[in-house]
Fold this sequence. Notes:
Elements: H1 2-5, H2 11-32, H3 39-42, H4 46-62, H5 68-86
Helix pairs in contact: 2-4, 4-5
Amino acid sequence: MSRYSHEQINAQTFSSSFRRMVDKVQKKLEELDMDKQYPVIQDGQGASLLIAIVDGLVIQYFAGTYPVDELEQRTPYFTRFITQALKTKN
């Protein structure tokens, strides 16, 4: 993100790199969901949702909303939240 904001990388390069990351995470999630218990993973949106949530938490950390110890304390809650979100049917 720093390179992007300092115009050291263009939007097309950033976008294609981000898409490759999402695709790789999606493939791994599908491999892990062998029993097909998570509809959001199976409809191809699991990685995008997961990355959006994690990115939001990272931004909140850097903005000072959550200090590290609070993130660690709330990890079980975030885990339950993400797991439940991935079980949502379309």
